[in-house]
Amino acid sequence: MKITYRVAAPEDTPECIALRGKTRENAFSVEQLEELGITLDSWQTGISDGSLPGYVGVSEGRIVGYCFGDRETGEIVVLALLPEYENKGIGKILLNLMTEDFKVLGFKRLFLGCSSDPRARSYGFYRHVGWRSTGTFDDAGDEILEYIPPPLK
To answer: Up-side HSE of residue 151: CA atoms within 13 Å toward CB?
Structure first.
């Protein structure tokens, strides 16, 4: 299984939205995303204007995972993988691509919202790759984790 990684393009949005509904945990349907204000147009606009940069992982011509962040705040907004591509290091690579970009942009601290349930895959994953709890929670009840990137060399 060969995975290639590239910067996300606006035309990736429909496939990213469809993938979001197929994740093992924390899946969101098109309708649920729309209720949160995340639409095809808003996602495409964010990619186009640079406010929502991201990376996609591609295998055999289809997107199997992605990671997007908020360029203004340094928040990792979403990291999603198809279930059959979990536990292969793809999520870690996608997350690292975003954190490196944000570090180059000058961010000294990145953050994200994550399940506070130790049984959730994301709970252990983010902590394993160096993210730490801030002890605070967002409006959705997710725990806020932070990552302090090492200084640029």
So the answer is: 1
pLDDT single digits (tens) 22-81: 887 776 665 766 676 677 788 889 999 999 999 999 999 999 999 999 999 999 999 999
Contacts of 42 (CB under 8 A, 6+ apart): none
- Extended beta strands in 4-148, E state: 4-7, 54-59, 62-70, 75-81, 110-114, 132-137, 143-147
Percent of the chain predicted with pLDDT > 70: 92
What residues contact 122, with CB distance under 8 A and at least 6 apart?
25, 26, 114, 115
Q: For residues 130 and 152, what is the distance between their CA atoms, to the nearest angstrom? A: 17
Radius of gyration of the chain (CA): 15
Residue 46 to residue 37: CA distance in whole angstroms: 12
Tell me the C-alpha distance between 45 and 143, whole Å: 28
pLDDT at 134: 96
State how far the Cα of 137 lies from the Cα of 13, in Å rounded to an integer. Answer: 28
